[in-house]
Design goal:
The chain is mostly helical. The protein contains 4 helices and 2 strands; from the N terminus they run H-E-H-E-H-H. It has helices spanning about 5-10, 15-25, 40-50, 50-70; strands at about 15, 40. A two-stranded antiparallel sheet has the order 1-2.
Length: about 70
């Protein structure tokens, strides 16, 4: 028997800054301060909304990753 996770309960699950940044595919330094901890729900909301700062941060992160591979 499997149990389904309640979406509302998982959305409130706290994340460390490094985990939130990894889920958003950005560097930890590009993650803004919320004044409270990051949650799964916040990360999902940002992935849906795709604000400009997130798109720019993803591009910087990708460039840094590609550059590190060629060094």
């Amino acid at each position: 028997m499997t149990t389904k996770r309640n979406r509302n309960a998982s959305a409130a699950t706290p994340l460390k800054r490094a985990a939130a940044a990894a889920r958003l595919n950005i560097a930890v330094g590009d993650l803004p301060e919320l004044g409270c901890g990051w949650t799964v729900g916040e990360v999902l909301r940002l992935r849906r909304e795709r604000p400009d700062w997130l798109i720019d941060a993803r591009r910087r992160f990708t460039r840094a990753e590609i550059g590190a591979r060629w060094r």
